Amino acid sequence: MSALASEPRTPDTLLLRNVRPYGEGDPVDVLVRHGVIAEIGAVTADGVETVEGNGAVLLPGFVDLHTHLREPGREDTETVETGSRAAALGGYTAVFAMANTDPVADNAVVVEHVWRRGREVGLVDVHPVGAVTVGLKGEKLAELGTMAKSAANVRVFSDDGHCVHDPLVMRRALEYSKALDVVVAQHAEEPRLTVGAQAHEGEQAARLGLQGWPAAAEESIVARDCLLALHAEARLHVCHVSTTGTADVLKWAKARGTKVSAEVTPHHLLLTDDRLSTYDPVNKVNPPLRTNADVEALRRALAEGVIDCVATDHAPHAVQDKDCEWSAARPGMLGLQTALSVVVEAMVRTGLLDWRGVARVMSERPAEIAGLPDHGRPIEVGEPANLVLVDPDATWTVRGAELASVAGNTPFEGMELPGVVTTTLLRGRVTAGRIPA
Ligand SMILES: NC(=O)N[C@@H](CC(=O)O)C(=O)O
Ligand SMILES: [Zn+2]
Ligand SMILES: [Zn+2]
Fold this sequence. Notes:
It is a single chain. With about 425 residues, this protein is α/β, with parallel strands linked by helices. It has a single domain, classed as TIM Barrel (Alpha-Beta Barrel), CATH 3.20.20.140. The chain is built from twelve helices and 17 strands. The strands form four sheets. A seven-stranded mixed sheet has the order 3-2-1-4-15-16-17. It has a five-stranded parallel sheet with strand order 8-9-12-13-14. It binds N-carbamoyl-L-aspartate (NCD) and zinc ion (2 copies). The site of one zinc ion has 6 residues, from loops.
């Protein structure tokens, strides 16, 4: 695939020296020419711009199926530009920008704007997600076909932030999505069960006097949607899975042949509702942080492939929307720059995933689910150079103020996490890390 006209000039040739594809075997050199992997092995190339890998792990660039970039409408919290920078620094080469902007991305004009801004910035491929229903109201289907056929080539539709709760509307959306060969990503939350909900329904919420968000509000919608998708022979993607019961439903649905895929967020793999005792709204998120048993079940489900991939649900919020009383605060947390490190902490250090597994859940599966032909590809000669280098032994301390996002609402503030993204390449061009001399 050729470089876009708006991208800065890419050096024709770049050498990654001493890198370990998938963290396996002895270090090799990888020569990238015209945005494509040209050679792998002991490469002798003089006078070529070189990135010294020092034995770092080389993976396919990450793909995030669930990012909130807040443009248009809340540029005070994130823009396509700042979010793209955060994504590149996090090792991402493609992100899917959710539709709950202002105006909502429920038409060709808005999705084309987001897509064009992404191209202009050029740090990561920004794919707009189209809304399923007009204004995210859950009543009338948006013009899915027009968005799919627009210049933005929308392939994922979601009312994320809201659940498409009317079963008739969801059924129609699945039927249309099948005809268009796109995927509907559902924010699974039965609204009648979460009126006023503030925290996972359980002991902790009871102790803190916060109204509960029951696991069944998620699980009942996932079960219903799996059946709707099965009968419609359509594809369904489940956003931010957060409970043991949802993992069980997915396992059952997949065994029956349902074309369902699912994502889990880094925060649901690492954090529990224990953190709520301080009443710090940085921990407020939808779906809520659950219990330790849920965290363990989610990790297992991801390792086994019952949950297909990790998606950040990167949700920037302004200080005034977070530094307030718990019930008034908006749900959501930053994720793009911390995702890899949290996955290393929760999945690699625990022995649940090796680096091949990380490539699968952060790059290959999300690219397949969204139908991206140039991302999540094998590290082989002739493949596009969408790549990330990770120093597996280094650690870093998270500081919200130092992240590239406009907002700083990270729940990992002050935590020392393993795994540092040192270089990201988009079609052979360095989008994060030191530009080689
Ligand atoms: N996850 C969140 O808590 N918030 C998201 C919406 C969403 O993903 O449901 C947001 O847009 O802020
Ligand atoms: Zn959501
Ligand atoms: Zn979201």
